[in-house]
Amino acid sequence: MVSSLDGFIAKKDNSISWFETADHYEKGVEYTEQETKEFLKTIDCYVMGARTYEHAAQLSTTYGWAYGDVPTIVTSHKNLQPIRPSIEIFSGDLTRLIKEKLELNFKNIWVVGGASLVKDFIQLGLAHEIRLSILPIILGDGIPFFDHIEGEQALHLEGVTAYKSGMVELRYEIKK
After folding, report:
1. C-alpha closest to that of 148 among 168, 125, 120
2. Structural contact between residues 31 and 167, judged by C-beta atoms closer than 8 angstroms
3. For residue 30, what is the DSSP state?
4. Is 148's pLDDT higher than 80?
5. Does position 35 have pLDDT exceeding 90, yes or no?
6. Nearest-5° Cα angle at 99, 95 to 104
7. Interior CA angle at 174 toward 137 and 35, to 5°?
8. Which domains does the chain have, with CATH numbers?
9. How much is the pLDDT for 49?
10. What are phi and psi of 140, to 5 degrees?
11. Region 145-171 average pLDDT
12. Where residue 158 falls among pLDDT bands split at 50, 70, 90?
């Protein structure tokens, strides 16, 4: 997930125009598209919520579908239509989805959003890792990443990377 320093993943109108920053951190490492491509090759299934899917589908008309042909499960109670053969719309129990379907067929499942779905995965004990990229901006208002997560959740810091763009990536293991 990408967030502002104050924890918002999008503005109230769902815009992410603030993703492009003009900051420069001299001690940071260079962010390369090759690293991203290598990481994405390790993902064999995506899970996303309805709003994230609708936003990604809208962006795909200009930029193409960001998730390629990798199986993508969209969790929704809406009557959504898949825009590609690799997309499946799912409505039901998340624990059953993971335990009875996804864990049997996939090794690296990435929950790409949104905040409500991530919250559900954490609270149900279905998430194993959190990757959070923090951009050098304070929005002051918007859609919060960690919204109303009930109870305390211990984490273990696995890694930190500071980029020349000023973005900082945090990687946490979720302790069971």
Report:
1. 120
2. yes
3. P
4. no
5. no
6. 150
7. 55
8. 2-14+22-174 (3.40.430.10)
9. 94
10. 85, -25
11. 92
12. very high
Percent of the chain topping pLDDT 70: 100
Query: Which two tokens mark 26?
Result: 């001299």
Per-residue pLDDT tens over the stretch 55-68: 899 989 999 999 99
Name the pairing type of β-strands 109-113 and 45-49. Answer: parallel
Q: How many helices (H) and strands (E) does the chain have?
A: 5, 10
CB 169 within 8 A of CB 132: yes
| Helix/strand/coil percent split, the chain, to 5 | 25, 30, 45
| Tokens of residue 142, six digits | 């918007």
Return the structure tokens found at 61. Answer: 């008309």
Q: Which two tokens stand for residue 28?
A: 């940071």
Please name the amino acid found at residue 69.
Answer: D
129 burial type by CB count under 10 A (0-12 exposed, 13-18 middle, 19+ buried): middle
Instruction: Find out whether 137 and 166 touch, Cβ atoms under 8 Å.
Output: no
